[in-house]
């Protein structure tokens, strides 16, 4: 049955779909006070993801992170009321590529905001584990919000069997091996996005190197170091390095 128009929770009205992922669909909604919000509705098979996201996100409060407000049921499906992250997904926002060539200041702000969000998560013992363009909403000026915590979890969380978490194109080598993940794995994914901003394409054997070196090349190497023990593991240090190499104040 159509979900638009339904009222869930404490008077939150679903208005229209905003997007769909592998586990859920997100609706634009309006609260009883008239304020916009979003409702993330999970496929019943992924009810455990709703529980995990609520547990991970309910205590988080940072301007560069989506806030998880309350659990709800929507037509017998598990859901979450969350703050509305404005903007477009990262790849949709930066259509002129490479982004660091055509919109350098805006893309640097996006990366800085992403690193701010990751630093906040990591300081609280959490790892996002699915940093990718679809989970980063970017506004016209480059301001960014990191969303979706249904794959997030404690630093170095161990599962009963090796579990590959994240999205293949943005996974760290250790994530692809199913190892327990720490902050350096999120930063590897941020490095992949930095590489995309520099090259205009994801890394791989068919991606040509940029014609000229860029001041951010050393940071790219530090973030995408295959050996996790040698990789840059501090989001705050990564942000400071980003802005210093870019010649911006921090």
Automatic annotation (TrEMBL):
Name used for this protein in its record: Serine/threonine protein kinase
Cross-referenced CDD domains: STKc_PknB_like
A Pfam entry, by short name: Pkinase
Domain annotation Protein kinase: ranges: 12-250
Xref: InterPro entries: Kinase-like_dom_sf, Prot_kinase_dom, Protein_kinase_ATP_BS, Ser/Thr_kinase_AS
Keyword ATP-binding: yes
A Gene Ontology molecular function term of the record: ATP binding
Key words, A-Z: ATP-binding, Kinase, Nucleotide-binding, Serine/threonine-protein kinase, Transferase
Binding site for ATP: 40
The keyword Transferase appears for this protein: yes
PROSITE patterns per the UniProt record, alphabetical: PROTEIN_KINASE_ATP, PROTEIN_KINASE_DOM, PROTEIN_KINASE_ST
